[in-house]
Each structure stands twice: as structure tokens, then as C-alpha cells.
Design goal:
Elements: E1 6-8, H1 10-17, E2 22-25, E3 30-32, H2 33-49, E4 57-61, H3 66-77, E5 81-85, H4 91-100, E6 105-107, H5 118-121, E7 127-129, E8 133-138, E9 148-152, H6 153-166, E10 174-176, H7 184-196, E11 199-201, H8 208-214, E12 219-223, H9 224-231, H10 234-240, E13 245-249, H11 255-263, E14 268-274, E15 279-284, E16 296-298, E17 302-306, E18 311-316, E19 322-325, E20 328-330, E21 339-347, E22 353-358, E23 363-365, E24 368-370, H12 372-379, E25 385-395, E26 399-408, H13 416-424, E27 435-438, H14 443-446, H15 452-464
Helix pairs in contact: 1-2, 2-3, 6-7, 8-10
Length: about 475
């Protein structure tokens, strides 16, 4: 049991209770809870022997492997803060990120291997202070310097407890790690598994349909592009039906994708979350009908309030400790401890949360407020469109007008007129984009969370030329 100010290591708790239960599964190897516990203790001892001390910040270029999952557990047992970085990031960007947070060390070893140490395993009882600094991860929302978000161990732990209570995840279940560990959506899977005694599956996302079958996957987290592409593969779609839960988030979800998922009888849950809240804030029921998409419930250990201007405010045990800048920690909260998300939302008649869009995405065209997410939503209802991003472009008469970047589904296209005709069914004329632009697919800006300002810069550059 947990004291009010400390958390007994959930990995160790399940290792003592069920040492032979699986914790990490891949096509090449498996790690039981007992093995992972011993390896984590050995990693902790090496980390301490290397001179690292509680509170030290270590940049970790983190790869989606079992060894890296266990290495992170070793860092937390040593009280070290894991500053999570992408393997795709240029070295100059990594160095700047570490400088921004005064990180003392960098760990970057794609071939990381671990060894057990009988002396290190011992009988030590690992505990974490609820407010122990655990991770720093970098938000991705613009072209400006990303914000460094500091989470406590308790933030991640209570995020997992609330998620597991809403989406059943227990011993014997297996959650596929299809999202990167340097994003909170990927990292949260570690905590969901540890707190429930379930397993994590690592493998090749490109072969997800075979991994689901061969490695007995029961749960998976995806973003919309991943799910859309899997549904275009009949074999993958059949594999998805074998799952207990598909958690979908990270961006606006096209209604056609929800309709396809419901028609295919996929166990789909849609979620609203943010890095500052350690992943999910609110999650739907399992979608049995298209109407279920509106049944978004606030998870335990989270609180939500909507201001008079429509902005969503959040707080709770999962709320981050603050933004790190050098040795400073900034907590942008109001006097009552609420964090302003910058998202706009409303409550429906049944008390469910509806997210409208980003407050800072809204722009004014001829005196009318335009929310890009509304236009994107209806663009994605076109059968040829996979995803879309709408940004404002300058206009001498109206001030600003919408322009749309459109990514089409494989082997499909639509003309500007066809898309205009499609949107006219749902939107007034002033919300119809004045131009449709080719999709710019740069993995640095379009992989997990689309960086809207990346597309804005492209549109602005076109005007200058």
C-alpha cells in the first residue's frame, strides 16, 4: 500500500507477487517481472557507481526497446530525472535542449544491454516520493523552442491508475508500444503495465498486424494516421478486431475514421489529453455507435473546468510540476491552481466534454471567428482526404482567409472544386478555404503531433515569393 507521500515501486510489488508473469514481450526475447526487477536494480547500482545522484538530470536518447524501458526504471530508482529525447533529433537540437534545462549528462546508446547483478538485487524496498522529479519531456506544438515539461513520479503513476480504471488493463493483457517513449503517450504505457501487473509489447510497428497475432497483443495506442493506414490493409483491420482496446488520440479525429472503426467493430476509445497532464484527461466509452464519440468522460485523478470564454482548465494529481528553464521552474497556474490548456471546449447536456479546438488557432475573417479544427473536421469527411491542416493567409479585403493543406489517401485525389463543393454542404462561404495546398510531409513536424506553425510558415513563405 502507498503512504500519502510515497509510492512503493509497482514493478517490485508485482515481482514479489508474481515473479514469473511477463512484463516485456518482443519477438526476440521476454522479460518477466522478476527478471526486470533484478535488471532494474543492477542498472540502478551502475548509475549510482557512475556518480549520478538524486535530482541529477540525464538526457536520454530513448529507443523503443525492452532494455531502455528497464534502464528508465533504474534511473528512477536512483532518483535521477530522465530527460527524454528523440533518436531522430539532430545532435545540435539535443545539445540545445539539454542546455535549456541544465542537464548534466547525455546517454545515447542504441545497443544498450543490461546484466543482472545478484549483489545489487538484494531485498531493498524501493519507494518513490509522490513529488519525486521523474521525467522532463519536450512539447511539440510550434516552430519555437519546445517547452520542457517536468513530471513527478506521482503524476505518471496516478495517470496510469485513472486510465486502467476506465480501460480495463490487467495481468495477462499486453499493450503494444506503437508510440515513442519520448512522448507522454508512449511513456504512459510503462506505468499502465506496472501498476496493473500487465505486459508491454515492443516490436516493429510496420508489422503490427502480425505482431498483434503472434505476440498476443490486447491493447494498443495509436494516432489517427496510424489507424487510418491500418484500416486500409484488410489483414491489419482483421487483426485490430482481436484487440480489447484501441486508444486513439493526439489530434482531431476525422468522423469518417470513427465511422469506419465502428462499422468494423473495433474496440475504439477516443481521448483528449496533453503532455502537461501526463497523457489522458478525458476518454470516451468504447465506441459501439458513431454517437458514442460524444461520450467523453473525465478520468479519475483529473479535474476539468470551462471558463466563461470557453477555455478548458485542468488540475489534479496528474498535473505537471512546471516548465523547466535552466534551474528555474515555472508553474503557469491561476490563484486556484488551475492550468489553462489553451483548448476550447464545452459540456454537453449529459455532462460530457466536447473539445472545440485551440484558442490560439482561432482567427478572424471579415469580423467572423474561424476555428481551423471545424474546417479540418469537415475536410476529413471527404472520402479522399486522410488529414488536413487549415491556417490563415492574409487577405486585403477580409484581413485573413482560410487555406488548407490536404493529404490524400493512397491512390486517391480530389480537385479544389470537389473539396469546395463538399465543404459547402456543411460550412458557410466565409469558412471555405480560398486555396488548397499540397501536403508537406516532414517527419520532424508531422509524425505524432502536427505542428501547425510549420504549415503556417510554409503558407507565409508562399505569399512572400
Amino acid at each position: 500500500m502507498e503512504e500519502s507521500s510515497s509510492i512503493i515501486c509497482p514493478l517490485q510489488r508485482h515481482a514479489h507477487k508474481n515473479p514469473d508473469h511477463l512484463f516485456i514481450v518482443s519477438s526476440g526475447k521476454i522479460f518477466t517481472y522478476g527478471e526486470a526487477d533484478r535488471l532494474a536494480s543492477a542498472a540502478t547500482q551502475k548509475i549510482v557507481n557512475a556518480g549520478l545522484r538524486p535530482g541529477d538530470r540525464v538526457g536520454v536518447v530513448v529507443f523503443p526497446t525492452a532494455e531502455y524501458i528497464i534502464f528508465l526504471l533504474g534511473l528512477w530508482r536512483a532518483g535521477v530525472v530522465a530527460c527524454l529525447l528523440s533518436p531522430q533529433a539532430p545532435l545540435a537540437e539535443i545539445e540545445q535542449s539539454l542546455k535549456d534545462i541544465n542537464a548534466q549528462f547525455l546517454f545515447n546508446d542504441p545497443s544498450l544491454s543490461l546484466e543482472e547483478d545478484a549483489a545489487a538485487a538484494g531485498s531493498h524496498l524501493w519507494k518513490y516520493a509522490v513529488d519525486q522529479d521523474a521525467t522532463i519531456m519536450f512539447t511539440s506544438g510550434s516552430l519555437a523552442r519546445p517547452k520542457a515539461v517536468l513530471h513527478s513520479y506521482g503524476n505518471h503513476y496516478y495517470s496510469a491508475l485513472g486510465s486502467n480504471e476506465h480501460i480495463a488493463f490487467a495481468s495477462g493483457d499486453r499493450w503494444f508500444l506503437a508510440l515513442p517513449l519520448f512522448h507522454v503517450s508512449g511513456l504512459s504505457i510503462i506505468f499502465r503495465a506496472m501498476t496493473s501487473g500487465a505486459a508491454i509489447v515492443t516490436g516493429e510497428y510496420k508489422n503490427l498486424e502480425s505482431e498483434i497475432k503472434n505476440l498476443h497483443v490486447t491493447h494498443v495506442s495509436l494516432v489517427t494516421t496510424q489507424l487510418s493506414r491500418l484500416l486500409q490493409n484488410p489483414q491489419a483491420a482483421r487483426s485490430l478486431k482481436l484487440l480489447k482496446a484501441i486508444l486513439l488520440g493526439a489530434s482531431a479525429i476525422p468522423p469518417e475514421l470513427i465511422d469506419q472503426s465502428v462499422e468494423a467493430r473495433l474496440p475504439l476509445y477516443i481521448s483528449y489529453g496533453l503532455t502537461e497532464m501526463a497523457s489522458q484527461v478525458a476518454t470516451s466509452v468504447c465506441l459501439r455507435t458513431p454517437q458514442d464519440r460524444t461520450k467523453i468522460n473525465i478520468l479519475k485523478y483529473r479535474q476539468v473546468m470551462i471558463k466563461d470564454d470557453g477555455e478548458i482548465l485542468v488540475k489534479g494529481e496528474v498535473l505537471f510540476k512546471g516548465y523547466v528553464s535552466g534551474d528555474l521552474l515555472m508553474r503557469p497556474l491561476d490563484k486556484d491552481g488551475w492550468f489553462p490548456t489553451g483548448d476550447l471546449g464545452e459540456w454537453d447536456n449529459d455532462g460530457h466534454l466536447r473539445v472545440i479546438g485551440r484558442k490560439d488557432n482561432m482567427f478572424v475573417s471579415g469580423g467572423e471567428n474561424i476555428h481551423p479544427e471545424e474546417i479540418e473536421y469537415h475536410l476529413c469527411r471527404h472520402p479522399a482526404v486522410e488529414q488536413a491542416v487549415v491556417v490563415p493567409v492574409e487577405d486585403p479585403e477580409f484581413g485573413q482567409r482560410p487555406a488548407a493543406f490536404v493529404q490524400f489517401r493512397p491512390d486517391q485525389q480530389a480537385t479544389a472544386q470537389e473539396m469546395t463543393d463538399h465543404l459547402t454542404q456543411y460550412l458557410p462561404k466565409f469558412k471555405i478555404p480560398v486555396k488548397f495546398l499540397s501536403w508537406k510531409d516532414d517527419p520532424a513536424y508531422t509524425s505524432i503531433k502536427l505542428k501547425r506553425k510549420y504549415f503556417q510558415a510554409i503558407a507565409d513563405g508562399m505569399k512572400k515569393r
